[in-house]
Amino acid sequence: MPIQALARAETRVDTPQPDHRLDATSPLAVDRRFAGYRVLMVPGLFGSGPDHWQSQWQRRYPRFERVEQDDWSWPNLDRWSRRVVETAIQAEEPVVLVAHSFGCLATVRASVFQSNLIAGALLVAPADPARFGVETKLPQTTIDFPTTVVASSDDPWMTLDNARRWADRWGSGFVRLDGAGHINVKAGYTEWPLGLELLDGLCQAIRPQKQALLQLLH
What we know:
By secondary structure, this protein is an alpha/beta fold. It contains 6 helices and 7 strands. α3 packs across α4 (102-114).
C-alpha cells in the first residue's frame, strides 16, 4: 500500500524503511515534501532530547518548530493542549502537528477547542489516556482533520490493541511497527526516515481536502 493511502487504513511495517524519495538533508526536501505547511513538533513527557527524531527533524528542517511547555515534567493535558493551540494560532500557514507520547494526547485534546487551526496530525506512540485519567477529555468520535496513528507492538506506554481502538475512534489511519518499543531514542529511533515518509503521506492526504475547501470558498 502506498504511504499516501494511509487515511482510514491500517499498514503494518516490520522493519524501518529508508527514505528513497529525496535526500532529507537537502533544502529542496522542505519545498517538495512539506511546502505550504507549518510543521509543529509536540513532544511528550520530559520533552524530546537532542537525539530524539523530533529534535533531529527540527535541525534538518529549520522551518519545523516545537510546541514548548512550561513544565515538561508535569503532563497536564489542559495546559499542554492550550499551548498547542496558542502555538498554532501564530502560524501563517496550515499547521501539521507531529506528536509523540503524551504530546499525542495534547494534540487530540487541542482538536476539541480549535480543530480549524490544524490541517493534520501524525500521532506517534500515543500514551495510554487511562494512565493519566484523561480518557473523557479526549475526542470520542472522528477528528475533523486527517490523522495517522503510529503504534508499536511492544510499546510499554500503550498496548497495540488500545492504540488501534483509539485510532478507530478518531477515524485515523493506523500504522503498526513491530518491536519498535516507544518509538524513541531508547528503542533506536533517532533520524527515523520512515517517519518522514509517513509525514509526507499525511501532507499528501491533506492537500485534496484543502483544495476542495478553497473551491467552496470561491
